[in-house]
Amino acid sequence: MRDVTMTRREWLLTDRPQSRMQARLGRAYVAWRRFTANRLAVIGLVIILGLVVLAAFAPLLAPHSPYIGDLAKARLLSPGPGHWLGTDDQGRDILSRLIYGSRLTLQVVLLVAVIAAPIGLLVGTVAGYAGGWVDAVLMRITDIFLAFPKLVLALAFVAALGPGIGNAIIAIAITSWPPYARIARAETLTVRNSDYILAVQLMGASPWRIVLRHIMPLCISSLIVRVTLDMAGIILTAAGLGFLGLGAQPPLPEWGAMIASGRRFILDQWWVAAAPGFAILIVSLGFNLLGDGLRDALDPRGSGQ
Amino acid sequence: MRALLDVEDLRVSFPTRTGVIEAVRGVSFTLGRERLGIVGESGSGKSQTGRAIMGLTAEHGVIAAGKLDFNGTDLLKASKAERRALRGKRIAMVLQDPKYSLNPVMTIGRQIVETLRTHEPVGRAEAKRRALDMLAAVQIRDPERVFGLYPHEVSGGMGQRAMIAMMLIAGPELLIADEPTSALDVTVQLDVLGILNHLVAERGMGLIFISHDLRLVSSFCDRVIVMYAGRIVEELPAARLSDAQHPYTRGLLNCMPEIGTERHPLPVLDRKPEWKT
Amino acid sequence: MSMMETRKPAGRARRRAYGRLKSVAGFLVVVATTYLGLLAVTFFIGRVVPIDPVLAIVGDRAPAHVVERVRLEMGLNLPYYQQFWLYMKGVLSGDFGTSVLTTNPVMTDIRRVFPATMELATVGTIIGALLGIPLGVLAAVRRGSMSDQVVRIVGLVGYSVPIFWLGLLALLVFYARLGWVSGPGRIDVVFEYTFTPVTGFFLLDAIINRDWAAFRDILSHIILPASLLGYFSMAYISRMTRSFMLNELGQEYIVAARAKGLSEARIIWGHALRNAAVPLITVIALSYAGLLEGSVLTETVFAWPGLGLYITNSLQNADMNAVLGGTIVIGSVFIAINLLSDVLYRMLDPRTRTR
After folding, report:
1. Highest averaged pLDDT of the listed ranges A76-80, C108-112, C314-318
2. Distance between A236 CA and the closest CA of chain C, angstroms
3. What is the distance in angstroms between the Cα of C262 and the nearest Cα belonging to chain B?
């Protein structure tokens, strides 16, 4: 069979993969092609990659210091050469602050995802696999959290914990795990009684092993889609907390807090508040486009064309 | 007898990303005020033939025909509005499963009245009276009650009768029945067929009966068309089905079990590529 | 029509009544546990998380004897389960404690400010539904077309935009620069003494009082914040409408409706949307709840004297009783809305309606 030489594309798309890796690569290739056929999704991916590059190379890309401004000569300058997006009330270059702010934004979404997704995954898979009263109790707790107003709850948490970006991250993570638990449970229920799980059971695998090694990996792809779609909401909540003065504290260049400080000059120096808001809009739009595209690519029956 | 429907070289195709799918590839037949059966396996193009005559082909589908004439109206030249005015009023269609083909959030009565009032300027009371008469005509014993019921509250057989009532209330000349009994219990199938047969005969309608069940069609229709892969492979009177020449038709006939005969191994339909041409 | 038929209804009615009782009981259990959870979480936030709950309530400038008195009043010397019991009793009887900022009972404050938030969220949801449903229908009917893409992008931007920022820009453009609408606040000071609230919904009150000048002023105040909230809710509603409509338009009963000769308009609005309306009710209810919450940020921007502004003001003054009271009220409204949408769903869908 091997003597027929295949192009790389044929090798990827073959109906009879020779190895597990070939099958996996083939599936990834199909998903990738479906993803790139969606122009909006590619735009989203480019935006997010751009954000990562900005965050990684902030010191190289930023023309000025994000923290130290020229109070005497450069207060509230309008956009122009030298300061492409103008300066704020402390004479700091807004563009540089935006570039450094991308690090905070990325930090928030990554940490929230890293905290909330595993909690949701664990609760959901355990509830789905165990069933019975464990399921009932865990899902009741999940539903209770789902029924809460997320932002208000996060506000209350931060109010109790004290303002700061770390506490904001904790508060957002506490309020964002329930949907992941629901998804993970739904996925678990669909595979729980399938033959290959029964086979693993017959081979004597412990319940924990089954959940960790055989069920959790199956939930990952739908979870990734959901987390990506949630990133925009996380960014908006973090920005909202920052705007209210409960998130990142000055002088950190957090975008929401930057809007809050620019608010006082909105009538005359509107760009001070406009630029960070626009940055938030672009980045959360990027996550939304990417999440939409991922969902369409990984789950063709979900929606769209 | 003047033909009610004259179809010549009908072609239905669907362009897709991977190429053009030809669902119907040159079908011709004429129909008088008679019962014509169209038989074939799924994907043979029998349903698409029916939908093309109705004007219900999916939007991206392409229809071409030498002739598509309904009682003097050229369906190919008719505008969308003219086709719509024909539908329900002069050509009607009964679908397969009443569970899905009746609107779940409208009462049966309202759905029947809706057909009538779309095509005739009748008042509410008059429309209701005629809908009740129609329900009685499809042998529903308690029309008043069924009139106010939602589709999920009636059985499959009752639902299909309601469907027939909904489609016949405006008095069409041609009825296309697309697998009208396939979703029903065997015991109910004959009732529904009997009602359909009675109404078609009484009103002098033409009927196109689409089914995969050759025996059902042959016992119910005057004439049978056998379709395979978008083409007609054989056309013959129902009474002379045993004289069928084409190997595909013979294959279909052979699949029918007969009591008292040994059937090992079970015969399998064989499909030769040359039949497609 | 035999004996069987006549005997059935009695048994069926009993079974149905039992089933209804069971579903009502299940309902109540869900509501009760959710509410209990809400109380537990707010208790946790208010009493367990802060290092010193008393300071969180009276502030760190209070004299020592006040701190001690409050500590005893709050029962902080008791074990947690007793504290929780007292807390629960207090909240359930409408006692959220006293606001440090306004020195009123928190409940009195909330009763005063809540109608403003409700009015804003209601007008916002109406705008969102009036725009979102037709746009979603349009996108579904013309799937894949230019208009579908535009609706999708407008919706995605609505999902992605920080609403407080958009509010600032809108104030700048429509109030400061163009002067088309009134600025922050709910009503002009001119009307402060002549205008008597009846329901707390100022638009309604103006109609009741036949005070058309005030009505125009209130409208020009509410239109901007409500449109912003409306945009946000439109994004959500149009997206869901599109997906529900696509689902319905693919059903067999649509083919049947076409076979009956109905016009496309009637098929879309009378048949498909009528079916899509059932799940849409839940979506609209959820978006209403979302707007109540979104009002926290919007009200801050527009100085709208509602619950959101109350909560943020209290936050800035470390007035924990007020913050928790506001959280509990918004949480309770969330629970009530979820409940209501469930009931509406059952009423609208004949398949779940018990007749």
Report:
1. C108-112
2. 6
3. 7
Higher pLDDT, C2 or C39: C39
Q: Given pLDDT bands bounded at 50, 70 and 90, which one contains residue A214?
A: confident
Q: Are residues C117 and C68 in the same domain?
A: no
Peptide bond connecting C197 to the previous residue in cis, omega within 30 degrees of 0 = no
With contacts defined as CB-CB under 8 Å, which chain C residues touch A51? none
The CATH number assigned to the domain holding C213 equals 1.10.3720.10
ipTM: 0.89
- In DSSP terms, which residues pair with B211 in a beta bridge? B39
A181 touches C: beta carbon within 8 Å: no
The pLDDT tens digits for B180-216 are 988 888 888 888 999 999 999 899 999 999 998 888 8
Please identify, among C57, C92, C127, the residue that sits at the C-terminal boundary of a domain.
Answer: C92
Query: What is d(CA C337, CA C284) in angstroms, rounded to the nearest whole number?
Result: 10
Burial category of A168 from C-beta neighbours within 10 Å (exposed 0-12, middle 13-18, buried 19 and up) = buried
The predicted structure's pLDDT at residue C2? 39
The answer to whether C278 contacts chain B (CB < 8 Å) is: yes
Among candidates B89, B104, B141 on the partner chain, residue whose Cβ is nearest the Cβ of C261: B89
CA B32 to CA A8: how far, in whole Å? 59
- Do B49 and B68 contact (CB within 8 A), yes or no? no
Are C246 and C127 part of one and the same domain? Answer: yes
Indicate yes or no: CB of C33 within 8 angstroms of CB of A266. Answer: no
Q: Closest chain B residue to C270 measured between Cα atoms?
A: B106
Residue (of B192, B183, B210, B180) closest to B41 by Cα position: B210
| Residues of chain A found within 8 Å of residue C33, distances taken between Cβ atoms | 140, 144
C78 & C117 share domain: no
C92, C117, C137 — which closes off a domain?
Answer: C92
pLDDT digits (tens, 9 = 90+) for A193-207: 888 888 888 888 888
Name residue C336's beta-bridge partners.
none
Top CATH class, B34-51+82-256: alpha beta
Asked whether residue C26 falls in the same domain as residue C127, the answer is no
CATH code for the part of the protein at A33-302: 1.10.3720.10
The domain in which residue C12 lies consists of 3-92
